Amino acid sequence: MTVPPEAAEFTIPIRDSTDVLRARGSARELAARLKLGSADQTRLATAVSELTRNILQYAGEGTCTIINASDDHQRCIRVIVEDHGPGIPDIPLALRDGYSTGGGLGAGLPGVQRLMDEFQITSQPGHTCLTMAMNRPRTPFT
Amino acid sequence: MRIPILRLGDILLTSIQVDLTDAEVMQFQTDVLHAIADIEARGLVIEITALEVVDSFMARTINDTANMAQMIGAEVVVCGMRPAVALTLIEMGRGLIGVETTFNLNEGLARLNKKIAQRGDSSLTDDEDAV
């Protein structure tokens, strides 16, 4: 996977399932570089995998932007997943456990929300944007 | 890339060691089921130690594959799931349903052999000996 070493932000186009692997691999790589633990690396990569897969399933294509938003106090990885698909008509419903329109088992969005520290959705027909972030305090070694 | 399926007596052994695209995952599912049917395998081991990310799609596919294999007559064990993967799946509200899991391949084979012995059907090697 290729992550520009010092880039604060990079965007990966999501068009097929190899892009899902690329996006989650890049997210994991950044998490490892920020010395997040293996559980957090897996949480983040899995969350990215779920959301980018949703793009393929519901919108066909979109983008995944991974941002190193760390500052002096905390390490922060922000991920923005965007598409121009039909949108999510009822966001509270989509965030309810067990609800799915795409033939999944319905743990997609609520599952991702539980893995991350921040999770926001804005959606209208033609533009859906999901923003999520994982925040961890800095330690003397990070 | 296709996942190799190795034969060990009447057991089939597969190890997923790289991130798979969706098409590769579905190919794997088909290959495994055909391989089981072809040799009437009594058991299937799916080894996933190297998998660092199991998202809900992958979890569902592993689960489905195991249930399908059981449905056509094989015992199934999934082995080597990483702690971080288990943690993430459960936090997401997922899991593997109706599938036996073990820490490692060694235990996986032991568990399978026990289950196959409990079924009491003759093994392929016994059949071959009889012929």
TrEMBL record, chain A:
GO terms for molecular function: protein serine/threonine kinase activity. Keywords: Kinase, Serine/threonine-protein kinase, Transferase. InterPro entries: Anti-sigma-factor_SerPK, HATPase_C_sf, HATPase_dom. Gene3D superfamilies: Histidine kinase-like ATPase, C-terminal domain. SUPFAM superfamilies: ATPase domain of HSP90 chaperone/DNA topoisomerase II/histidine kinase. Residues 39-138 form the Histidine kinase/HSP90-like ATPase domain. Transmembrane segments: none annotated. The keyword Transferase applies. This is Anti-sigma regulatory factor, serine/threonine protein kinase.
From TrEMBL, chain B:
Coiled coil: none annotated. Residues 1-112 form the STAS domain. Pfam families: STAS (PF01740). It comes from the Bacteria. This is Sulfate transporter/antisigma-factor antagonist STAS. It comes from Candidatus Contendobacter odensis Run_B_J11.
